[in-house]
Amino acid sequence: MRQKLVAEFLGTFMLLFGGVGAIVLTATGTLDAGLLGIALGHGMSVMFMAYSVGNISGAHFNPAVSFAFLLLRRLPAKEFIGYTLAQLAGASSAMALLYFLLPEAARKVNYGTPGFFAGLDWSRALTVEIICTLILTFVIVRVGTHQANPGAPLIVGLTIATLIFAAGPLTGLMLNPARAFGPTLFSGEWKDHWVFWVGPLIGAALGAFTAEFLKDRNHAHA
């Protein structure tokens, strides 16, 4: 259990250090990552860490993904709680390091905190998070059904990058409550924080059940 929690901590730490780090570095003027670079920063961070520790914990790095596997009875409730706490700790630690290294740049980009951009209200922002997390979770569950799939981390990483590239300008596109929690812990903007928990959790549940439904259909026609 300890190894799993450390793996989830490290994976979530790298997700924020690589993803939010790309946003923060852009603010310094030393890196012009752009939306594509930021999307790849998130996706590649997950990919690298999934290859590194996926065989230990399953490479969730996301409370919403852990919630999906809890609903599918592939993750015990005790481990779900432990995973979530480890993920939140990893996210917070990554933000603390970024703030220590580049405090002015971190403040300039509001620590990578999510929000309602492009004129969205909370209902539209919630919809964006639900739909995109549904897609991500669907991919994770379906790819994960293939035993020893060496391409799974690459597929998941590219899915994350694609979704952020497509919808990042709308909310920042969290897909992940831990990704929202770390930055908000430093910015203090808690008013709409619930959207970035409720949206991903609903999306993860829908994605997981959709993936399971298709798996059953495939088995029925096998």
UniProtKB/TrEMBL annotation:
InterPro entries in alphabetical order: Aquaporin-like, Aquaporin_transptr, MIP, MIP_CS
UniProt keyword list: Cell membrane, Membrane, Transmembrane, Transmembrane helix, Transport
Molecular function, one GO term: water channel activity
Entry's transmembrane regions: 7-28, 48-72, 84-102, 122-141, 153-174, 194-214
Localization: Cell membrane
Source superkingdom: Bacteria
UniProt membrane topology term: Multi-pass membrane protein
SUPFAM superfamilies membership: Aquaporin-like
Matches recorded under PROSITE patterns: MIP
A GO term from the CC aspect: plasma membrane
Family, similarity comment: Belongs to the MIP/aquaporin (TC 1.A.8) family.
Protein name, per record: Aquaporin Z 1
Source species of the chain: Deinococcus cellulosilyticus (strain DSM 18568 / NBRC 106333 / KACC 11606 / 5516J-15)
